[in-house]
From TrEMBL:
The active site is at K352. The lineage of its organism: Bacteria, Bacillati, Bacillota, Bacilli, Bacillales. The gene is glmS. This is Glutamine--fructose-6-phosphate aminotransferase [isomerizing]. The keyword Acetylation does not apply. The keyword Transferase applies. One of its GO terms (cellular component) is cytosol. Keywords: Aminotransferase, Cytoplasm, Glutamine amidotransferase, Repeat, Transferase. GO terms for biological process: carbohydrate metabolic process; fructose 6-phosphate metabolic process; protein N-linked glycosylation; UDP-N-acetylglucosamine metabolic process. Catalyzes the first step in hexosamine metabolism, converting fructose-6P into glucosamine-6P using glutamine as a nitrogen source. Residues 40-179, 209-347 form the SIS domain. It comes from Pullulanibacillus pueri. One of its GO terms (molecular function) is carbohydrate derivative binding. It is found in: Cytoplasm. Its EC number is 2.6.1.16. The chain holds residues 244 to 600 of 600 of the full protein. Homodimer.
Length: 357
């Protein structure tokens, strides 16, 4: 089933442009615009706050989703780690709508929250890759990811599919409220798919970056600001779980509040610079770590790039940059793991779906 690929993870990374195109087709209405069905639109319109609940990579997609939902459609949105929800239960608004993001649709931590909030009588929506999964069956509504089966334990195409579907949801809510978006999402997702395709074609460059920065390091840092910070959390998780290199994602401005103490000569620091409004500040954070000996690898968006950047991402709409910036991070983690002789599809201690709480 993995055809000529050496493993599933590489195949699934490569499938991402096709997954985005498939999502656009699946969600396209008769006017050629991406939209969601009326039931879900109505349920969201009737709620005053969205509560996203998820684990791991799906939680990271939720963080990006919150930004999309709040920025594009003005709906207050919170994101919660499923396994913490019952202990750190947020104060709920009057009419909450719960959104469960889960590739497998079987994550026990997320299901426990679903069962709990259903008992309280709240509306629920599951965003999942698996039709007929537990979380899909038990929620009032489902949005499918259309990513095709994800076999590798490390989630790649499901993450980008989740972000893409959340962008469609956000745009649809905005439309429903009569808010004019200043861009055509259907068209912009097409541009994203092309940008992803260009990035997965740069394997040699990314393999070399992995070798140069990660060959014999014990740790690595990822820094970014605004939405790039959320992609840094996901990038660090990818590296940790398949290469066993200790990695952390940080908000660029937080470094000076403690983490910078960990920077030594040669410490790899990956910096994402895809957001115009924070480009100056993330670049000064890079200078701060370089001054302390870090080996910095800057990945920037075309138009914001500067001399010395290691990789320039093709330009896409600034609300959608996570869809492209995560791709080189997945490939860097992949090659680092391969170079260290790790089993990329089946990392130690991990299962594809976590069905225990
Ligand atoms: C990381 C990864 C996990 C899952 C998490 C949630 O690559 O795959 O962090 O994202 O276990 O799984 P789902 O999305 O199936 O609920």
């Amino acid at each position: 089933e993995k055809g000529t690929y050496p493993n599933y993870m590489l195949k699934e990374i490569d499938e991402q442009p096709a997954v985005i195109r498939k999502i656009v087709m699946a969600y396209e209405d008769d006017k050629g615009q991406v939209s969601i069905d009326e039931d879900i639109r109505g349920a969201i319109a009737a709620s005053d706050r969205l509560y996203i609940v998820a684990a791991g990579t799906s939680y990271h997609a939720g963080l990006v989703g919150k930004q999309l939902l709040e920025n594009l459609s003005g709906v207050p949105t919170e994101v919660h780690i499923a396994s913490e929800f019952s202990y750190n239960m947020p104060l709920l608004s009057k009419n909450p709508l719960f959104i469960f993001i889960s590739q497998s649709g079987e994550t026990a931590d997320s299901r426990a929250v679903l069962v709990h909030v259903k008992k309280l009588g709240f509306r629920t929506l599951t965003i999942t890759n698996v039709a007929g999964s537990t979380l899909s069956r038990e929620a009032d509504h489902t949005l499918l990811l259309h990513a095709g089966p994800e076999i590798a334990v490390a989630s790649t195409k499901a993450y980008t599919a989740q972000v893409a579907v959340l962008s469609i949801l956000a745009a649809d809510i905005a439309n429903g409220k009569g808010m004019e978006l200043d861009f055509d999402l259907t068209k912009e997702l097409g541009i994203v798919a092309n940008a992803m395709a260009a990035l997965v074609d740069q394997k040699e460059v990314l393999e070399n970056i992995a070798r140069e920065y990660l060959a014999d390091t014990r740790n690595a840092f990822y820094i970014g600001r605004a939405v790039d910070y959320f992609v840094c959390l996901e990038s660090a998780l990818k590296l940790k779980e398949i290469s066993y290199i200790q990695a952390e994602g940080f908000a660029g401005g937080e470094l000076k509040h403690g983490t910078i103490a960990l920077i030594e000569k040669g410490t790899p620091v990956f910096a994402l610079a895809t957001q115009a409004h924070v480009n100056g500040s993330i670049r000064s954070n890079v200078k701060e770590v370089v001054a302390r000996g870090a080996n910095a690898c800057i990945i920037s968006l075309e138009g914001l790039n500067e001399e010395g950047d290691s990789l320039v991402l093709p330009e896409v709409h600034d609300a959608l940059t996570p869809l492209v910036s995560v791709v080189p991070m997945q490939l860097i983690a992949y090659y680092a793991a391969l170079q260290r002789g790790c089993d990329v599809d089946k990392p130690r201690n991990l299962a594809k779906s976590v069905t225990v709480e």
